[in-house]
Design brief:
By secondary structure, the chain is of the alpha/beta class. 36% of the residues lie in helices and 27% in strands. The protein contains 14 helices and 18 strands. Strands 7, 8, 9, 10, 11, 12, 15, 16 and 18 form a nine-stranded mixed beta sheet that branches. It is globular, with a radius of gyration of 20 Å. The mean pLDDT is 96. Bound molecules: NADPH dihydro-nicotinamide-adenine-dinucleotide phosphate. NADPH dihydro-nicotinamide-adenine-dinucleotide phosphate (NDP) binds next to α1.
């Protein structure tokens, strides 16, 4: 059915709405629902202005399963694209099961009270989705998302076996604000302040937050930047689905300024998710901090520079050692001109649209719950080039230690 229901009208929801509107041959009807319908209406007005297409809007509290089920049953979409917050994943999956409709998201479920990045809650839905004859596609953003597909593409076309993987995420953009996060601050800070973790020789190794770093020379004029080891959710599914991998790590760039602010905020307790009493009311410090920080969507017109996200793989081809780097470079200002958002939302929203497109057109089909790397990477990679995220593969001489 050529209809999509997008849930969540934040930075990413805005890009998904624009990109779906640009592909009318697949997304004949678009409905955008969120907790605050006014945000959906503002996005719909922007989309109408830029593409001439009309988007229907709705109000929904996606934590409320019966309410979301009623919305899905009324709209009757071919797929529900969940770009609300990770807290809503299980409730929206329950609503999709009740209504018998396919599901897609861009981030794994997280309980509100513990910052945990694990697929086990969502993988536990596999049998129920399979028995209902519907599909759930997990993590169809950039990382997770494109990075999982990049790994699958390299394994399919460039190597006989893959042995090590380094996923490297660089935001070389500048927004001129003293401190801001480029996607939801609460989710972003939970991720960055968590302990580092990577896969090595069949086991998970832990590191103190941001304690391991390297220098990496980024292509296309970005140049050398310091990258820090973090845990990121796609490592869990990739380590499971590519058993030849001896090591899998994830790295991200941070400016010294960002890290200094984060350290101070952490030291005074502002990044904590433990509730505290304040003037007779319980508040969560990190949620209060989110209220003070710039809304990521307000950074769109301010951000200049590029992002570069890619997968560095070492392995064997034809009996020889080989190192390949598959990456995309995206320009913040070009994204803003196209859809009114900066590159972080853009690089997440485009793969979400592509995942939904492949599901609606039947190129990616399955019954149950799937991670991106379980599906054929080729149609996704073609669509990345077609829909604004072109990629490059290069070979390197030196591995990363
Ligand atoms: P925002 O905070 O900008 O937007 C989230 C939206 O979800 C808001 O519009 C909010 O509505 C809505 N929402 C929150 N709770 C509910 C609810 N109970 N019911 C309905 N709507 C709700 O976040 P982003 O757009 O930056 O991120 C969206 C998702 O994308 C997140 O899950 C994030 O983790 C993920 N992400 C994934 C990336 C990847 O590469 N895979 C990268 C970046 C983000 P309202 O404003 O009305 O309160």
């Amino acid at each position: 059915m050529p209809k999509v229901l997008i849930v969540g009208a934040g930075g990413v929801g805005q890009v998904v709405a624009h990109k779906c509107a640009q592909v009318p041959e697949v997304f004949e009807d678009i409905v955008l629902a969120s907790r605050t319908e006014a945000k959906c209406r503002a996005i719909a007005a922007q989309v109408a202005e830029r593409t001439g297409r009309k988007i229907e809007t709705a109000q929904v509290d996606a934590d409320d399963v019966p309410q979301t089920t009623r919305l899905i049953e009324r709209v009757k979409p071919g797929v529900v694209v969940n770009v609300a917050l990770p807290y809503q994943d299980l409730a929206i999956m329950d609503a999709c099961l009740a209504a018998g409709v396919d599901y897609l998201d861009t981030a794994n479920y997280e309980p509100r009270d513990t910052a945990k990045f694990e697929y086990r809650w969502q993988w536990a839905y596999h049998e129920r989705f399979r028995d209902r004859g519907i599909m759930a596609l997990l993590g169809s953003g950039f990382d997770p998302g494109a990075t999982n597909v990049f790994t699958a593409y390299l394994a399919k076309h460039h190597f006989d076996t893959i042995e090590t993987l380094d996923i490297i995420d660089c935001n070389a953009g500048e927004h001129g604000q003293p401190f801001a996060t480029n996607f939801n601050p609460e989710i972003n800070i939970r991720e960055v302040t968590a302990r580092g973790r990577y896969w090595e020789n069949g086991a998970w190794k832990e590191t103190d937050p941001l304690s391991v770093s390297r220098m990496f020379d980024f292509p296309e004029g970005i140049g050398p930047k310091k990258i820090y080891l973090l845990y990121h959710e796609e490592l869990e599914s990739i380590a499971k689905h590519f058993p030849t991998l001896k090591r899998a790590r994830f790295w991200m760039t941070f400016s010294d300024n960002y890290l200094k602010h984060l350290e101070v905020l952490g030291n005074v307790g502002m990044t904590s998710i433990e509730p505290v009493m304040f003037q007779g009311r319980e508040i969560v410090p990190l949620q209060f901090l989110k209220a003070l920080l710039p809304d990521p969507s307000s950074l769109g017109p301010l951000t200049k520079g590029k992002t570069c996200i890619g997968c560095l793989v070492r392995g064997k081809q034809g009996g020889r050692d080989k190192i390949a780097f598959l990456y995309n470079v995206c320009d913040h200002e070009a994204c803003y001109r196209e859809v009114g958002s900066q590159a972080i939302s853009y690089t997440t929203g485009v793969p979400a649209m592509i995942g939904a497109k492949l599901m609606l057109t039947g190129k990616w089909r399955g019954k149950g719950v799937f991670n991106m790397e379980q599906l054929d990477p080729d149609p996704f990679m073609e669509d990345m080039n077609r829909h604004g995220l072109p990629w490059v593969v290069t070979t390197l001489d030196k591995p990363m230690d």
